[in-house]
Specification:
This protein is mostly helical. 60% of the residues lie in helices and 0% in strands. Among the domains are: 37 residues; 55 residues, Methane Monooxygenase Hydroxylase, Chain G, domain 1. It contains five helices and no strands. It is flat and about 65 Å long.
Length: 132
């Protein structure tokens, strides 16, 4: 039960320190409001046009695919450090893991999600554009 009280005390002190930091920053920071403060970017460059522009959704798909494979690769480092001590079973398990990753990569590749610009599909009922 004593360890519970220690954890509760640690949590209370953490909340108290965060609260005091926020309170002091509210009290001490200068409140200077100027028109540039409300711009989209505070980098000294005046933005041109709207800040709400359409981004290519392909960026998000590629970023998510990168994150998935990047995080999965992190599992290889601890395994590689103790590889000799783990034996054949761990090697087979990691081989299966890598095969699953490669199947996922092949699926994404064949689906065309790694291509930044996808070709437009040709529709049979529409005439082809000139020059293409």
């Amino acid at each position: 039960m004593a360890s519970f009280y220690i954890a509760l005390l640690f949590l209370a002190v953490g909340f108290l320190l965060v609260g005091l930091t926020v309170l002091f920053s509210r009290l001490l920071h200068p409140r200077i409001n100027y028109p540039e403060k409300n711009l989209t970017y505070e980098c000294g460059i005046i933005p041109e046009g709207e800040s709400w522009i359409k981004f290519n959704s392909r960026f998000y798909v590629i970023a998510l695919i990168f994150l998935i494979f990047d995080v999965e690769i992190l599992f290889l480092f601890p395994w590689a450090v103790v590889f000799e001590e783990l034996g054949l079973l761990a090697f087979v398990e990691m081989f299966i893991f890598i095969v699953i990753l490669l199947v996922g990569l092949a699926y994404v590749w064949v689906k065309g999600d790694l291509d930044w610009i996808k070709p437009r599909p040709e529709l049979a009922h529409l005439p082809k554009e000139k020059g293409k």
